[in-house]
Amino acid sequence: MVAPDESRGIQKFRIFSSSIVIKQVAPRGLPYPDAMGIGGVRLKEEYSDMNLKDKVAIITGASSGVGAAVARNLHEAGVKLVLTARRADRLEKLSSELKETVFIAGEITEADLPQRLLDKALKTFGRCDIVLNNAGTIEVGSIPEINIDKVCQMVRVNVEAAYRVAYVAVKYFLSQNHGHLINTSSVLGTKIRPMAGAYAGTKFALEALSEALRVELARTNVKISCIQPGLILTELHRDYKVHPKDSLNIPKPLQPEDIARCVRFILEQPDHVRIPQIMILPKDQEI
Ligand SMILES: NC(=O)c1ccc[n+]([C@@H]2O[C@H](COP(=O)([O-])OP(=O)(O)OC[C@H]3O[C@@H](n4cnc5c(N)ncnc54)[C@H](OP(=O)(O)O)[C@@H]3O)[C@@H](O)[C@H]2O)c1
């Protein structure tokens, strides 16, 4: 006779084994058979992830720091660019330096901006292959000092807008059966330190979405990656009373160009390679 607990165990085993059977019946067509096309996961003959020349990338947060450095780096590789940020003068200057570069100046939390960026890429260049989901802001502080309104604005930029950009990108990439979404997360998307909990929370949220999308898109030709940098010398900390390089004693932080090389490395992998996450830290960051 089977004891009640054992009987439950058998049932669990039956459910488990029947789900295996379902997977064996239809292992590859789920959940995006159209995106995979006839013949499974193969890309069109002429397409290769490794050759960046003439690919088209959208970069958010492109007016300074990481976004601007990635724009310059990808431009050298022959990528055509659609840039966005709020400071039109910065975007104007950068796009006049780089050939085949256009921009839309705007507030990334405007709900229709991600779709307008995609439309701009398609109308101007006829394609979109890469999205760097990079616009971000930081708000940290001790319990008595933290500005909750600024924290909520950070959540809108780092989470809500980043999610909109991500979904617009992956929907389009699925429809064409290729594309690479790279999210600028942070080392604080994997670790937490006092007074930076809300910022870390926004990056954990980006990591969670990225991981779910990556698994959902496995077996398609849509790639999802997250970059997790430590301290980079950019304009992000311009309002800090004491810069983190001093408060954290990191005399030589990362440069935006270090992150740009990472992005280029992730993008230039062969079609069968996935890099879900890459952490990059300055030598002296103890975290
Ligand atoms: N610096 C670091 O130590 C560090 C470390 C880990 C991760 N990160 C991440 O790296 C990403 C890029 O930051 P960064 O370090 O390069 O700093 P940054 O120089 O301040 O660049 C931030 C970019 O985001 C744009 N942006 C901010 N708020 C926006 C809004 N509401 N609407 C549209 N664009 C907005 C800014 O442009 P406008 O001001 O012109 O709009 C700027 O182009 C962020 O996601 C950040 O969280 C940075």
Give an overview in words.
The protein is of the alpha/beta class and 287 residues long. It has a single domain, classed as NAD(P)-binding Rossmann-like Domain (Rossmann fold, 3-Layer(aba) Sandwich). The protein is 44% helix and 13% strand. It has helices spanning 4-25, 33-36, 65-76, 88-97, 113-125, 148-176, 197-216, 244-247, 256-267, and strands at 56-60, 80-85, 101-105, 130-133, 179-184, 222-229, 277-280. Helix 5 (113-125) runs parallel beside helix 6 (148-176) and helix 6 (148-176) runs parallel beside helix 7. The radius of gyration is 21 Å and the shape is globular. The site of NADP nicotinamide-adenine-dinucleotide phosphate has 28 residues, from helix 3.
Keywords:
Rossmann fold, binds NADP nicotinamide-adenine-dinucleotide phosphate, globular, seven-stranded parallel β-sheet, disordered N terminus, 9 helices, 287 residues, 44% helix, 13% strand, alpha/beta
**CATH architecture assignment name:** 3-Layer(aba) Sandwich
Bound molecules: NADP nicotinamide-adenine-dinucleotide phosphate
> Pairing-aware structural class of the strands and helices?
alpha/beta
State Rg. Answer: 21 Å
- Count of the domains: 1
**CA distance, first residue to last residue:** 55 Å
Output mean pLDDT: 88
What are the secondary-structure elements, in order, as H or E? HHEHEHEHEHEHEHHE
* The CATH homologous superfamily: NAD(P)-binding Rossmann-like Domain
Strand content: 5-15%
Largest sheet: 7 strands, parallel
CATH topology, by name, is Rossmann fold
Classified by CATH, the class is: Alpha Beta
